[in-house]
Amino acid sequence: MGYHLIDPNDLDQWDNRPTDVRSLSVAAGYDYQNSKLGLRVYELAPGEQSGLSYHSHDEQVEAFYVLDGTLHVETPDETYVVESDHVLFVDPGSPQRAFNPETAETATRILAIGAPSVDDAHPYDPSDDA
């Protein structure tokens, strides 16, 4: 059996992304690649996105649970506004870009879940659909 109690405030910046991101799953000993689960906490200042530009995944399901503030998720059809204590699921093959708009008055804090944790992201250019 294994149990891992982690305080995100005790973790260092996870990678070189331009936003504050802490990898809970890596801290618990789960590999970044080819793990059943990726779990991260992001704090997005006004004008910041979650790290990846507009993209989609081949097999990874993503879920964005908003802890504080409001998250905006741009898709080809609409921009979802995800309020605190709400979650948006993004199925594989569904392009999206998660961000906190420049006009926001506060930071947005989210719990991002990816399953499985695989590096299968592909850039998406909305103009390709035109």
Strand content: 35-45%
Q: Could you spell the SSE succession in H and E letters?
A: EHEEEEEEEEE
Number of domains: 1
Q: Would you state the CATH class? A: Mainly Beta
Taking all residues together, what is the mean pLDDT? 92
CATH architecture: Sandwich
Radius of gyration over all CA atoms, rounded: 14 Å
Structure classification: mainly beta
- The number of helices is 1
Q: Output the CATH topology.
A: Jelly Rolls
Cα shape:
globular
- Widest β-sheet, arrangement of strands: 1-2-9-4-7
Protein name: Cupin type-2 domain-containing protein
InterPro entries: Cupin_2, GPI/OXD, RmlC-like_jellyroll, RmlC_Cupin_sf
Pfam family, one: Cupin_2
Keywords: Metal-binding
